[in-house]
Amino acid sequence: MGKLEGKVAVVTGGTSALGLAMAKRLVAEGVHAKEMTMKKTLSLLLTFAALVLPGAAQAQQSKAPTLIDPADTVILLLDHQAGLFQTVKDISVAELRANTTVLAKLATLAKIPVITAASVPDGPNGPLMPEIHQVAPHAIHVPRKGQISVWDSPEFVKTVRNTGRKTLIIAGVWTSVCVAFPALQAKAEGYNVYTVIDASGDPSEMASRTTVARLAQAGVIPISTNAVMSELQRTWNRPDAAAFGALYGAVAPNYQAVVESFQKAQEAAGQTKK
């Protein structure tokens, strides 16, 4: 393996076929190892992965339903802890907490099981954010005994299996560890796995971006909070539509402003007609 192949393989993980394929392509285009900083390598990797990974993961993702089935879904909220929040740099903590709270509210509204976990909460990682269990009182908290990945906790995996559901929506801190590890493990066991990137956080944007590429390569589906909401809601023609509408305002404050301005315009129009 040459110097360039080595640099690329470091980013993609060892001597993976993706790293070697990308390196060969760069060599063919006349790019030399001395020109490649790690940041530039990452940028090129993500561009290359966008072209290569969809085909590589197609067989795995074809087994998943086109849209999320609420009746087959469990939401896992992992390690949203006060101490870990202080290390998050790829998203504001306020937005991260707001989106996580929305997911918990959504689970309550859609009657979807929620399972939470915390990593050594008695240490510097700190306690779980209280909002989750406040807005999702049906959530089950599963303590673990030092395992970094919740999927290495037999009790946690048992709790997931006891739901009888095969679609997992996962969010947590850190994305690259506490979300990625169980997502990859569950995917390997046949679960349909979605990771909510804007309800998760990492120590850097680079950590988050490389994790998204890694997850996509394995067939895990990255998703956003508002997309989860829309897929689970599916239609406005339902009795709880107003409750869903309130959640959109929480995840997108600008949308809430649109709603408020529309309501005021309607009120003004009604007064004019009188």
Task: Give a quick summary of the entry.
This protein has 274 residues and is α/β, with parallel strands linked by helices. It has twelve helices and six strands.
Which descriptors apply to this entry?
alpha/beta; Rossmann fold; six-stranded parallel beta sheet
What does this entry look like structurally?
This protein has two domains: 3-60, no CATH class; 70-232, Rossmann fold, CATH 3.40.50.850. 55% of the residues lie in helices and 9% in strands. It has helices at residues 3-12, 17-28, 38-61, 82-85, 93-110, 131-135, 154-162, 175-188, 205-218, 225-233, 241-251, 253-273; strands at residues 73-78, 114-117, 140-141, 167-172, 192-196, 221-223. A six-stranded parallel beta sheet has the order 3-2-1-4-5-6, with helices on both faces. Strand 2, helix 6 and strand 3 (140-141) form a beta-alpha-beta unit. Helix 3 packs parallel to helix 9 (205-218). The longest helix has 24 residues, at 38-61. Mean pLDDT is 85; it is low at 10-15.
